[in-house]
Amino acid sequence: MATLRLGDTAPDFTAVTSEGTLNFYEYLGDSWGILFSHPADFTPVCTTELGTAAKFKDEFEKRNVKMMALSVDGAASHAEWIKDINETQNTEVNFPIVADVERKVSDLYDMIHPNADSTLTVRSVFIIDPDKKIKLTLTYPASTGRNFYELLRVIDSLQLTANHKVATPANWKNGEKVVVSPAIPTEEAKGIFTKGVEEIKPYLRLTPDPTA
Ligand code: BEZ
Asked: Which atom of ligand 1 is nearest to the CA of 49?
């Protein structure tokens, strides 16, 4: 198993999930995807994460992103745990959770980091574009729950920069000014970004969000 890097093709798989047997590529269709692993069912941080993911489903859907979660527990365990998540997090889990008992998907995506834990998956995140290319990877330890606002923020950035010659600065949020791609000279940028280009340095140019 090789480490997956940005720009690599996300490996396809067919797996048992809490919503039956699914093929990953068929499930994604032409959508963006987010595949995220968690260490184990019936654990507190994971319970809050999956509840939060369920509550964010509308926001992911607005961005044409389909979610799939994963742990190395079985489908029967997932089914029981989902009842707890729904009850305690006041939501309905509304996306599939892979039951990766044989660790096939975990191995494919390098989600088990033996020096952290030899058996459980870490908190990996893969954001995948409609061409099935990996656009973001994140790895958090078991003790730290992920920030789902950050996942939405990075999807907004990825989708904006896929279509416009811009990049997004530190702590950027949707609708805020963006950075003109360094490859574009300022005079050319002024023709492209008709809302205005603010040149702070020749290599640091800001422009209003072209989609806002
Ligand atoms: C948790 O989800 O709370 C958790 C899982 C594994 C280790 C530590 C915490």
From this structure: 2
Q: Any residues with CB less than 8 A from the CB of 44 and at least 6 apart, and which?
A: none
Per-residue pLDDT of the chain (212 residues; tens, 9 = 90+): 568 999 999 999 999 999 999 999 999 999 999 999 999 999 999 999 999 999 999 999 999 999 999 999 999 999 999 999 999 999 999 999 999 999 999 999 999 999 999 999 999 999 999 999 999 999 999 999 999 999 999 999 999 999 999 999 999 999 999 999 999 999 999 999 999 999 999 999 999 999 98
Residue 165 CA from chain centroid, whole number = 22
| Residue of 46, 85, 127, 166 with catalytic role | 46
What's the predicted TM-score (pTM) here? Answer: 0.96
188 is catalytic: no
φ, ψ for residue 157, nearest 5 deg: -65, -45
The CB-based long-range contact list for 159-166 (8 Å cut-off, 24+ gap) reads 159/32, 159/63, 160/209, 160/210, 160/211, 162/129, 163/211, 164/210, 164/211, 165/192, 166/207, 166/210
The rounded distance, in Å, linking the Cα atoms of 116 and 124 is 13
- For ligand 1, whether the C-beta of 20 sits within 6 Å is no
Question: Angle 70-119-43 (CA atoms, 0-180°, nearest 5)?
Answer: 55
Burial class of 73 by CB neighbour count within 10 A (0 to 12, 13 to 18, 19+) = buried
Does the CB atom of residue 48 touch ligand 1 within 6 A? Answer: no
